[in-house]
Design a protein that fits this description.
Length: 364
């Protein structure tokens, strides 16, 4: 059920006692979380910015601003800081990858969730002083912190540096610096996944089921496959990998998106192992559930369809002197509005006992 959120208490004004303003700010933040959760439930993802909540989910624009210095009917002053924005980017890995690789702030924040869970701030208000910042977490009560909220969660094991982008993207940095160069035959249609790969194809985790790196071509498909994006799966070995890989840039009109992917171990047929989320330039979200047995089967020489499910499209990749041939799966998303360009793709794991690895994406 969708609830449209507006201000139920008018409590603006710079002359108002500071504590009353703080209480009103807390009320607004809780209302804002309701609006954000309503948006996510209806649209399938968080909004790109707080302004995307208006007017369907927020009717009063003042809700997006701290009441400390906003006068009734006039937006302005200190806007709340939205931690899951897609409108800005961070230069993650800049110090370890030449030229840097731009990643969205939201992906950095989602990786911090693995460290602190739902306590990570969704929205913050810095208008009450750097030592009394209000943090609205994904779940639970609002809490105060210094300017750097991460300090509340540091101890002998977790240092402040552990929250930085560089260690949280360390797998990608290591793989990036060992990738073979992109083949000159690759075109913009073959999405460049440099900076997203977190496994080499000869990594022991997937080496027995992955092809050699390079440009893969058949008459009906071409892929630039030089590494793998391994999504998180349950158990100790799966923890280093990201649950979500967000905003892989497409920025092109296409009729279809082709995904070359695999999975290492079998699962119960019909199990949803991941959801790929396609975002078009009009902001519409197109979910693509990935089911074991229908879209993926265990990679390797013994690939078989699952009973009761339409079999996935399996393609065989020739081997070489070092590798035997392997069989992988090709899944296709069909664009319902091919005249509208695709902005980006998210890859989201369901964290089952095994999870997909994505080698390549091609736009057609």
């Amino acid at each position: 059920m969708m609830v449209v959120v507006g201000l139920v208490v008018a409590c603006h004004g710079a002359d108002e006692p500071a504590e009353a303003q703080r209480k009103q700010c807390r009320r607004q933040l809780l209302l804002l979380r309701d609006a954000l959760e309503n948006y996510r439930e209806q649209q399938g993802d968080w909004p790109a910015s707080l302004t995307n909540l208006m007017p369907q989910y927020v009717t009063d624009g003042n809700l997006l601003y701290c009441p400390r210095n906003v006068r009734p009917g006039k937006e302005g002053g200190s806007r709340y800081e939205y931690e899951f924005s897609l409108s800005g980017s961070i230069n993650a890995l800049e110090s370890v990858i030449p030229g840097g690789i731009k990643r969205k702030k939201r992906e950095w924040k989602e990786r911090q969730i693995s460290l602190v869970g739902d306590a990570i701030p969704l929205v913050r208000c810095l208008a009450h002083g750097e030592d009394r910042v209000l943090n609205l977490p994904l779940a639970g009560p609002i809490y105060e912190s210094e300017k750097y909220w991460e300090k509340k969660f540091t101890n002998e094991v977790m240092t402040l540096a552990g929250f930085d982008d560089e260690p949280l993207f360390a797998l990608e940095a290591a793989v990036y610096n060992s990738l073979t160069p992109r083949d000159p035959k690759a075109t913009p249609a073959q999405v460049n996944l440099e900076g997203y790969y977190n496994l080499r194809l000869d990594d022991p985790l997937i080496a027995r089921v992955a092809p050699g790196a390079g440009f893969l071509s058949r008459p009906d498909w071409q892929f630039d496959a030089r590494g793998a994006i391994q999504l998180r799966f349950s158990g100790t070995n799966g923890q280093p990998f990201p649950k979500n890989v967000l905003a892989i840039s497409i920025n092109a009109k296409c009729q279809r998106l082709h995904f070359l992917h695999g999975i290492s171990e079998p699962l119960k047929p019909g199990t949803i192992v991941a959801r790929y989320l396609v975002r078009d330039l009009r902001g519409r979200l197109h979910p693509m559930p990935v089911a074991y047995g229908r879209d993926l089967v265990a990679a390797g020489p013994g690939v078989e369809a699952s009973p009761g499910l339409a079999p996935p499209r399996v393609i065989e990749i020739a081997g070489d002197a070092k590798r035997p041939p392997v069989k992988l799966c090709l899944s296709t998303w069909i664009n319902p509005s091919p005249d509208v360009a695709i902005a980006s793709v998210d890859l989201r794991s369901e964290v089952t006992s095994t999870a997909p690895f994505i080698l390549a994406i091609t736009a057609e």
